[in-house]
Fold each of these.
Amino acid sequence: MKIAVIRKECSFFRGGAERYCANLSRVLAERGHTVYVVAKECDPDIHPSVIHIPVKVNNLTSSSKNRSFHVNSQRALQELKVDKVYALSRSYPADAYRASDPLHINLMNIRYAGKIERFLQGLNPRHRTILALERGIFDPKRIKIVITNSRLTKSQILNVYPYPEERIHVIYNGVDLKKFSPGHKRQVNNKKVLRLLFVSQDFRRKGLIHLIEAIAILKGMSLPCLLQVVGSDNPSHYLKKAKRLGIDREIEFSGTSKSVEDYYREADLFVLPTQSDPFANVCLEAMACGLPVATTTNNGASEIIDEGETGYVLNESEPLPEQIVRVVKVFSAKTERKRDEMKKFARIRAEGLTILKNAEKTLELLALT
């Protein structure tokens, strides 16, 4: 089968959604399919049967970026003869759309709490463009089926858009169990200080500020932690915040990494207090490396966490910094044997969610469109 996959960036070395696109394309190609990746950027060595179809993007404004990628992707598709079109970015029409990006209408409600501010932001060309694309995506005449990576996202779509429920299918993310495995730690934790890890390209939405505030509280309680922050976002605002709180020595910003699995292996607990995530793949990657995860109910990945066994789920019952403090205190009080059990259970849970299983379920649905 010839399959066109639409995603603005397809790379093993970027965010979770970009890595998912690269992994899916590779597995589909390994199963004998010809895969056309319609993208602005694409890793050149994913698989010999993966063909990059370059898409030009107008980078003048955020609005033009999103609109031009959609328009030019559809133009590129007209030149291809494919059996199925699978959109991983906001572009239509397509046989299937994977809702891996947060619903923009929900993000606006989170970031702009006031009605007046939300109204004014709604006039912003960037937001208008993305919301228009989102409405187009969830038009049943333009997209035959929608695939979500969590029950959370499915319910969010049904709450906002008139898309038929029976055409929305949940398929959890898959992870590369070879690349993301427990392995061996490069460094020994001689000081026995709890090592926390945060991985994201969007520090604001993923709640880094809450984690920094929690680190300060923990230090005041004589429970010091070291926080490793991995991601390409600008750290200046968060560095200033850490210095004001007197914890700048407890936090290290490492920038982006092509070997993020090394950071998973060296940490004790992965913490992602995100505001909104359909399914943060970094949580699954961490679990595959045997790293327990703490994340919020706003993250679809929380659906695969068994409380106290593979990690912890943070809810809205109290402020996030206080919840993080509570979880860290509980985790730090565990014996080494109990922590090792959590690591083992985290890996076992991840082993049931592979890229291959994800691809097989996806192919089954595409065949029905």
Amino acid sequence: MLHPARQQLLWDWLAARSLARGLPAPVPDHGGMRVDTGTAQEIRRHVFALPVDGLRALAAAIRRPGIPLKLCAATDALLALAPPGWTAQAQGWLMTHAGPFPAGPALPPGYRLALSVHGGVAGARILADDGTPAASGHAAAHGGAFVFDRIVTAPAHRRRGLASALMGALGATRGPAAAHGVLVATSEGRALYEALGWTVLSPYATIVFADPDVSANREPVPKR
């Protein structure tokens, strides 16, 4: 579980992530934080640093998809807090980076980088010479966290150093040097970030309600 002293970094990460995605700022809810994402795939998400009673209450009340619960813990530990009907998504990893970010390698021949900063959000794209998108990502800061978000390399362009170059370009937009780099990595991406000097702060688990026999109209409205 995430140590209570590090909870503020988690909240700063979530606020910066919301900024990077144009989402509402997170608000306290049930002992964790809630972001009202309001998309067709996700109504809202609840993020917790610790397994508080409010998380258990939400897991018991929610009876529809599109409202994931997330906890800084291993997936099995989060599933154990929920009643039947919930299923796990792939294990993630909350990672941090202190100190200067690596500059990143030079792009290989045949690629070019486009970088922009608007409203406190940095966006970067790497394009092949024919204009094909090869990699993209975003970054934003809040409080003590500088967040890298949606770092993606197209399958046909992987293993060419593009993600490292992308993160180097985004990292150069960081303001206060004291801000820690924070991101959530997949198990596949974890190795890349560790090679760039990132360390795992905590496992990061996600569960969603996925019982096909329960009607979406039967979800009680949880207290906030």
